[in-house]
Amino acid sequence: MEQHAIPVGDVHVERCLPGRPHAGRVLAAIQAHADDIPLYCAGTVAKLIDEGYTAYLIQTTNDEKCGPTHSSGDTILRNEREVEELGRALGFSDVFFLGYRNHLMDEASPIELRLRFIFLFRALKVDTVFTFNPWGHGEENPDHWMTAQAVEAACWMAGMNKDYPEHRAGGITPHGVRDKYYWVVRPGQPYNRVVDISPYIEKRIDALRVNTTQGPAGSGGSRLRARLAQQGLRLPALGDDDETADREYIRLFCSTAARQLGQEYGLDYAEPFLYVPPGGSVYGFAGSDEIERYIAGHAVPIR
Ligand SMILES: [Zn+2]
Predict the structure, then answer these.
(1) What is the pLDDT of residues 109-167, one digit of tens each?
(2) Which candidate in 56, 82, 116, 195 could, as Cys together with 14 as Cys, close a disulfide (CB 3.0–4.6 Å)?
(3) pLDDT in tens, 237-269
(4) Is residue 204 part of a domain?
């Protein structure tokens, strides 16, 4: 995994939990493009939904640049339908499309983008977010960094009562995001958390399978099967039908990093994240618990 991601500090392995310990909690997975969630966090999102989280999918761009035909309109529609299908495949409760132009997000107003996230985090009462690392080394796609930086700022600003107080008129009150999972995209980006997705590898394959318009993954198996058939060849590992071919192609060729990372930590499959726990500044004030402990240990009668 060293070619993809850099472990930092004590890497925590997040294991699968019995029951629904996260019931009542809400997560939002925020992607710029139809293939981001399938590639970077599908297994973990499936795990957390299974463990009780309610989940929402937010997509920032219209994906107009990535598709097999010359038509931008056709490309947008294909991707939009596939993201809806991705939402159903992983168990998201709703999907929100923000509709910014693909590859051009750096022309968007960062303030408007941030405000839209603040509105959604408050309205949906989001506790946990998944997105790109806003300061990730090597990130070359403006859609990724624009999305991530707006999300990061919106997470804490959504909890402030003087930011956009007019939301109260619609019954929407301040609600800050508690913790963040920044997924790993580029070589050299850091991770401090490895999530065991072994029981959810089929869900990850489901997520990649629906993404046929812009990834090589979705229908790669059936296309390879057809190409080999023209040469009078077949790969036994791809099975005897297109559906099996697509799934097994993803398992063989689009799961290598998840498999390698898993093996490093004694798991079958894993996804890496830079996890940002609740808390503000490192050099902030002591919490009320610490103050009360100090009082209990040091307070003396006035007389
Ligand atoms: Zn992307």
Answers:
(1) 999 999 999 999 999 999 999 999 999 999 999 999 999 999 999 999 999 999 999 99
(2) 195
(3) 999 999 999 999 999 999 999 999 999 999 999
(4) no
CATH number at 140 reads 3.40.50.10320
* Ligand 1 center from residue 195 Cα (angstroms): 21
In a domain, 147, yes or no: yes
Q: How far does residue 7's CA lie from ligand 1's centre (Å)?
A: 22
Structural domain that includes position 32: 5-198+268-280
Position 1 confidence tier, pLDDT thresholds 50, 70, 90: very low
Q: What is each CA distance from 167 to 73, 116, 176, in whole angstroms?
A: 34, 12, 14
User: How many Cα atoms occupy the beta-carbon half-sphere of 179 within 13 Å?
Assistant: 10
Q: How many domains does the chain have?
A: 1
Alpha-carbon distance 269 to 254, whole Å? Answer: 12
Interval between CA 34 and ligand 1 midpoint (Å): 7
Is the full-model pTM beyond 0.85?
A: yes
Question: What Cα–Cα distance (Å) separates residue 97 from each residue in 73, 120, 158, 207, 241?
Answer: 15, 12, 20, 18, 34
The alpha carbon of 267 and the centre of ligand 1 are apart by a number of angstroms equal to 27
99 in any annotated domain: yes
Span from the CA of 300 to the centroid of ligand 1 (angstroms): 60
Distance 40 CA to ligand 1 centre (A): 10
Structural contact between residues 43 and 197, judged by C-beta atoms closer than 8 angstroms: yes
Would you state the structure tokens that stand for residue 82, as one six-digit string?
């596939």
> CA Rg, the chain, in Å?
22
- If you measure from the C-alpha of residue 303 to the centroid of ligand 1, how many angstroms do you get, rounded to a whole number? 67
